[in-house]
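Sorry to interrupt, but I need a hand with the structure work. Please put the record directly below this note.
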Amino acid sequence: MDLKTFNKGGTKSTQTSFARAMIALLFLVAVYLWIIATKGSIENNTFLIIGAIFGAYMAMNIGANDVANNVGPAVGSGALSMMGAIIIAAIFEASGALIAGGDVVKTIKKGIIDPAMITDPQTFIWAMTAALLAAALWLNFATSVGAPVSTTHSIVGGVMGAGIAIAGFNIVNWATMGKIVASWIISPLLGGAIAASFLFVIKKKIVYQDDQIKAAKKQVPFLIAIMTWAFATYIVLKGLKHLIKLNFPTALVIGLVVAVAAYLIIKPMVAKSARKLENSRVGVNTLFTIPLIFSAALLSFAHGANDVANAVGPLAGINDAIVNGGISTKAGIPLWVMAVGGLGIAVGLALYGPKLIKTVGSEITELDQMRAFSIAMAAAITVIIASQLGLPVSSTHIAIGGVFGVGFLREWMSKDETNWLKEVEEALKSDKSKLNKATKELKALQVKDEKSKADYKMIASLYSSIDELEGKVKVEKKDFKKAKKEQYVKREAVKKIVAAWIITVPAAALLAAAIYFMIRGIVLP
């Protein structure tokens, strides 16, 4: 590439980055102007304005980072284009936040800190502001390095750090924090195990059958029905709670009825589509495309209903403290707060989401529709099971764990690729054994003639050559295994993501404490 071409490419990239930054800034300005116009009469509304801007910034970072887990596998498998994924995710994330978002969210996130130890409303407002900004900054950094992290853990770290800065370590509910630390292990392992299990079943029941089309016609409707059951149960529990509150068993039965209906509708459709397909993995893969699109939409809706509400919880707390002049352990989330969260996610996703979508969809392991379907199944089922068992799992960790699980299963099942190296090793060992025998026979004869000496030297030379070749084969086999592992699951990506997960809470906590002290230093004389 010559300098002229390089300059053109660099200029274009710079212009694109500048345009994205300007659009993001315009959104923040729009939030500012809207707050001024609608909340200007509220006394002491400065921190409400600041909190709203930080909340909007936080929401954009959620869109840029966290949403990738919902649509990344569908994009990586080719079921959705990048533009299609962004449109679907933006619509359903915002819809989930506005339609099915939580009515009431604990402002002190999941009991992380004891609100009784913060008696001054102004101090509480500073703390929540610091927590919001710290979580947003951490998400921004994680996105810039291509590491998908948990929004929930980021805001938990922010609230914890600000609380410690105010009242010391005793303010933290360490039992709850222990559960969150446990979730770093539980979430990816659970998601990975479920995703790998579904992929294993698909391979055994469909891919490894002589007549894949016949097997697919039987198994695919059943698999889609299971996915429908999981999503229907979730929507009944969360999406309809404004109209009617149902317990889990009731929701499970309703979901099962919907799943049976879906099975009866889908089965003839799959049979009709299968008649046009070739009897191959590629052909069968296409049957999972439409279910993947629906799963991306429903996962986005679920994410909007849950994680967005959690993320803007501190903003709801700020609003409640300013409007009511006190500190509540719970605060209703006004519609305008949810709107800031929902729209902010859509803007952040459209501007900066593609980077993390590519990371999740293609940079950890190669995905096709079957693998992506297994990951979506894992995400849906695990979230429901965990929520009913009270396990503090992260949707981000579940989804990424599902990607890991699929990749490692592929690696484990791909053993035939090293067979030829094993055969070479066995052949060399056989030749080496024969030479050993010939050498011993010559030594046993104890002949001194020149011919025997020459034969002995020749055998020794051959032995040395085979020994050298055997060493090279061992090195080649080791390198081949390493390359195979890198092909199926990229170790560097795994290390980077796991490292980001581990430091999310402490990093957000340190940032929040520093920001709180900075705010206090500016505000107090």
